[in-house]
Amino acid sequence: xxxxxxxxxxxxxxxxxxxxxxxxxxxxxxxxxxxxxxxxxxxxxxxxxxxxxxxxxxxxxxxxxxxxxxxxxxxxxxxxxxxxxxxxxxxxxxxxxxxxxxxxxxxxxxxxxxxxxxxxxxxxxxxxxxxxxxxxxxxxxxxxxxxxxxxxxxxxxxxxxxxxxxxxxxxxxxxxxxxxxxxxxxxxxxxxxxxxxxxxxxxxxxxxxxxxxxxxxxxxxxxxxxxxxxxxxxxxxxxxxxxxxxxxxxxxxxxxxxxxxxxxxxxxxxxxxxxxxxxxxxxxxxxxxxxxxxxxxxxxxxxxxxxxxxxxxxxxxxxxxxxxxxxxxxxxxxxxxxxxxxxxxxxxxxxxxxx
Length: 355
Prior knowledge:
- The protein is of the alpha/beta class.
- 34% of the residues lie in helices and 26% in strands.
- The protein has two domains: 117 residues, NAD(P)-binding Rossmann-like Domain (Rossmann fold, 3-Layer(aba) Sandwich); 160 residues, Dihydrodipicolinate Reductase, domain 2 (2-Layer Sandwich), CATH 3.30.360.10.
């Protein structure tokens, strides 16, 4: 592929609009925008005047060829839109989660292979510099044999009412750390045990604790609580995607010879202003010299290179995205039943078994 990649963005909400900007800054041509909200679609189209627009992806692709489709719509639509893109002969970048069922994830993988197309799942945390460093150090044997992982990601309380309850929060928050654990181990999850906090009342799914056992014996704890109060220092209050609130989390890898730790909120950079205290996140999508950088830019640059055939999909293999969907689905099943759940090999037919 010698010319710039032609891209259609599906879902042009706040994050989809940011995607459109960053794909363009990375050298892609935005040839189409799709959203079911006609007013929002027209608004975002003003920044991309040469892009075709439509409320239906299939209809747009029928008249506007594209190399790739970026799916940044609501979670429940991801699988269907990815399949529409593949059926039209396009590569697909699908924001996390890849799908809301293992069956749909495997269907995407099967059709991508049959069409000889690439699918990149948008697990941005893999592309954050600290997480890439942890992954590389584990692989290099810096902490010896990996034994266990501890992963925690807490979100602002107000976000749960705003968007966190449109699907089970496991798909919104825990999926990040499930994927990180998979990337650190390079193995699928074989068994999970999970629960949610009854003390949270109607917001119970917003507080989740899960124990994962991987093929090979490594264990991981994945915890998430959408309970960070409004008074906490903001981490994403400004920049190209301003969100009034905070993401607070930690990642820890424990080996026989050492430990690696990372905290999302630390005192490395703190701002005290009349608006309050902030701990700006500089890893996800910081604006640098007028363009968006950080993990999002690296992730999109990686996807462009994979779609153009300039590199293999080694950082975010599609199979590992399917492993993550299977693990998330099993966590939700374990919460529902109150029992451990075995996760079948996603290379075959998925089947959750209570054990």
